[in-house]
Amino acid sequence: MIRLRLALEVQEAFPNNLWILDGQGGKLSKDQIEKTPMEENVEVIMEEWVTILVKLMERDTLFDVKLMTFQNFFQALTTPSSNPNLVTLEGADLILAWGDLSMDFLGPNNCYGWNTESFNIFFQRLLQLSHVTAIWPHPAETLIYGNKTSYLSDAAAIARQHGHEIPAVCIIDHPQDVKELQPDLIYKRGYSDFSQHVYFSGCPNLGQKPMGTIEAFLAAVDEGEHCYAGVDGGLGPITPKWFTMPYLDSVKKFGELHVFFVSGKITHTTATMGIRTTHFRDVRNPTLLDKLLNQLYDEPMNVWEAEEAKQRFEKFATDMLIGLIQTREKREKHPSDLRLFARLDIAVYRHPDNTWRYYLSKVKAGIATVLYLRADTNCHIEHVLVSSLCDNFFTKGHMRRRNLLI
Question: What are phi and psi of 247, to 5 degrees?
Fold first, then answer.
């Protein structure tokens, strides 16, 4: 619930990211909006980064927030000599939520409308801006987590350091030469989300799109090579890589656990079921982890067994996050956005010794992270999450400005 005046202000800048509801599951009509007092609270649905934005705007004694559409932001960077908005950007303490490169950001249906040339100019200047102003998420780090193979390689090394067995992840050097989809493998691609580039033999169609044939796989390979040819945002060629992971029947059955971290601490855990496009109705949230783990066993677990299982799982997740942060910061020489906020997607599978094991299948950071916070979510979780993020954003921007002044 937020004030109507604030909801309309945000909606004007980001009409596809916030919706005002009528309290009965539908959208508030124009006539209803005109009859509603501006200071009255209304029910809204908004994306997670917009939730943070609204909370920052509500703290108007601490934050002076200026809204800028993506189109204006894009023009400010690509035509800097004639655009007054560039001065605003360079003078900001923090730029929040500029975009998401974990998706097929240069595919034929990308939501940004850019091509190879315009993206290269935009991203090079975004990197330059990141040396002057704090930007969340960091542009270079968004490429890393969109790439997928980079963090999966790091995750494998970290897991081995802690004594965990992990399924093999193999790069496909020449995906155009694949002759058939092996029945025991899942084929995936970097810079892709929402199961857009997931193929395996016998895979059901997702959104009327065939995902289980070699023809569909090869067509996706050709499309990616065409769309990303010549893409270089200033950090070297950006090429989506294809890779394989073992097809584990228990993962298909039990799905994944999504673990959310704020400031390096677990706030909540959700669960998805099976390999398919995830919808809110597929997510059990909030779910007490001991109850969730109890569902994995054929017989009810004793209280102490559930607690031990919970501790083992949370230790695995925390070890992976800390390892990724340390590895990235040592390599990239700047603080990782994972310190602020992260989601680790951890697959659950049954080992041949009949024990349950985990492995990290995906890392989400920045605006691509979906919280699955709904109206029936524990209010305490949302309060802690939002408050922590707001405080971290303020600290990050303040410290960057302070360092520049020094």
Answer: -85, 110
Tokens coding 186: 């899942």
Kind and range of the H or E run holding 18: strand 18-20
Give the CA angle between residues 370, 281, 246 to the nearest 5°: 70
Closest listed residue to residue 272, CA positions, set 357, 361, 354, 153? 361
Q: What are the residue ranges of helices labelled H in 212-334?
A: 214-227, 249-254, 289-294, 303-332
> The whole model's pTM is what?
0.82
pLDDT in tens, 223-255: 999 999 999 888 889 989 999 988 877 676 666
Q: Exposed, middle or buried, 174 (CB in 10 Å: 0-12/13-18/19+)?
A: exposed
Q: What residues contact 38, with CB distance under 8 A and at least 6 apart?
A: 3, 4, 5, 8
Q: Kindly list the structural domains of the chain, giving each domain's residue range(s) and its CATH number in brackets, ordered by start.
A: 142-384 (3.30.470)
What tokens appear for 367 in the block?
């605006």
Query: Token pair for residue 285?
Result: 């949230």
